[in-house]
Amino acid sequence: MKSKKENNRRFYSLNDYFKETIGEKIYKVSLDGGFTCPNRDGSISSGGCIFCSDAGSGEFAGNKIKSITEQIDEQLLFLGKKIGEGKVIAYFQNFTNTYGNVEYLEKIYYEALKHPRVLGLAIGTRPDCLQEDIVKLLERINNNYLLWIELGLQSSNEEVAKKINRGYPYSVYKEASKNLKYKNIKFVTHMIIGLPNEDNESIIKTANDIVESGAWGIKIHSLHIIKETKMEAIYKIKPFKIFTLEEYVNIVVDILKILPPKMVVHRVTGDGKKDEVLEPIWSLNKRKVLNEIEKELKKREEY
Ligand code: SF4
Fold first, then answer.
1. Residue 134 to residue 146: CA distance in whole angstroms
2. Which domains, from first to last, does the chain contain?
3. Contacting residues for 66 by C-beta, under 8 A, at least 6 apart
4. What is the pLDDT of residues 256-302, one digit of tens each?
5. In whole angstroms, how far apart are CA 270 and each of 183, 194, 280?
6. What stretches in the chain show pLDDT beneath 50?
7. I need a labelling partner for 129 at 20 to 30 A (CA). Which of 8, 73, 147, 288 fits?
8. CB of 205 within 8 A of CB of 156?
9. Pocket lining for ligand 1, CB < 6 angstroms
């Protein structure tokens, strides 16, 4: 792998990874496997993480009434000319995509993998939903296909995790990440910048903890206060600090600085729907956020 400086790239993005390993840009199709989440169905809590919407943090996923194959076809149609005959990653995105019995999981994962345009899987889940039989299934898939798991950590700070009602302690993430690493299964850890009462020091610690856990990739999201979530209700009663664009850009660049050159950066900001995001409004202009991050990296001469 060329260094980021040789590539003239300021961080190693998922596009860079695919260009290097497959030789072309690979798109993702977001699927709804019909799951729920133990943090919403009463097993852990019925409230869910306070930022989570009714769509289970998967606003752009397919329609669960349709089969996996139909959802893939529909999304390929939507991508249209942009993708041509290219392959895609089937991304099981919303809710907890390993929260089910192993036979059902096997059925839907392989249905996706059998699609002629699917190159591999990305599976979003919680670290407390990776029981032994499920990890065995993931290992089998991993031996034959491209696979990565996405873990919604958001913060390694226990107090912040309690505030957002994440429903598991950091030790559970540590254990799950250790196990995945041992089994050679790639994982991508999500973190959110701007959670209530989390300061910059704690955010940087989270990034360092993700690096230390051996994550293959990282997704950095700006906090979105989505309408009709618990977080919106809390914010309306007692507003908490919302990062400005400048503050967000600065902390993202601080995080990018500490990531190892081989860590794949899947995201540096979130995707939100205009009519659903209450705050921060600047985050809806994704192009601008990305440009500002690039500008700051350039100003600091960071690669
Ligand atoms: S773990 Fe994911 S799906 Fe479950 S409540 Fe939290 S954000 Fe929503």
1. 17
2. 14-299 (3.20.20.70)
3. 74
4. 999 999 999 999 998 888 899 999 999 999 999 999 999 999 998 87
5. 30, 12, 11
6. none
7. 73
8. yes
9. 37, 39-40, 48-49, 52, 56-57, 95-96, 126, 152
